[in-house]
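Olfactory receptor
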Amino acid sequence: MFIIIHSLVTSVSLTVLESQNTTMHFVTEFVLLGFPGQREMQNFFFSFILVVYLLTLLGNGIIVCIVKWDKRLHTPMYIFLGNFAFLEIWYISSTIPNMLVNILSETKTISFTGCFLQFYFFFSLGTTECFFLSVMAYDRYLAICRPLHYPSIMTGKLCVILVCVCWVSGFLCYPVPIVLISQLPFCGPNIIDHFVCDPGPLFALACIPAPSTELICYTFNSLIIFGPFLSILGSYTLVLRAVLRVPSGAGRTKAFSTCGSHLMVVSLFYGTLMVMYVSPTSGNPTGMQKIITLVYSAVTPLLNPLIYSLRNKDMKDALKRVLGLRTNQK
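Predicted structure tokens:
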């Protein structure tokens, strides 16, 4: 009902605008400014982002292949990790290729439809990542706090269900906000001072104020960020309490190392998300917004395979086995 009322209000406002200016022109494309500067600086950004993108594809691709080929890693923990790495490949691919093309482009334009498609996939994949981080924290909670019951609780069937829920629910969260934003009138200017189609700059370009749509978007963002984050915080609070009860120092060290990599990813990812999206009135400068977005959209996917692989003995051993097997087969 709220959405219907909002659509009616938007239609009435649009009619009023059209009656005031019959020659109003509605934009069919946007201009993504990206990182403006001299050509030398543009070339530096292009080279840096290209290297980050290729290394991210390589690192996460290796994790996906290792989990797929090594049957010893066909356990819930590594199935989640393999899906998470696969997700990161698509997450960074939703923005970086267009960003690279945009740097080389003279016009730096993106179509109206292309802008909202990028918006949808970027935020849907980011939402899916939030859900996967929460599920992976729950898996570590079961493994450490309830080790005897872990095999009977985290069965293969439950693992598959959780993976499917993360993927499906992640892509079902954002259609409503995106449809509402796309229905707003954009009659110029069409310049977005960012390298992605983000809701903040899009609201700023709308010809009429849309407080109800902004409220819906920020409510969605807050729920998506704080829901999984509180779940993760609860899981690791219980894990910490259980670890502190372990009598041996070696046992505590092993338990902490198991969860340390996950906590590093969570801290980096959620820290930047909260700075960027929790408060609509945060007043971050445009340059700072770009840097923050670049951190959680490009740097975090790059660091994930390094954090998980270099700190995980099973992953390193599996990589050696897979490389040795492939070498012997040749």
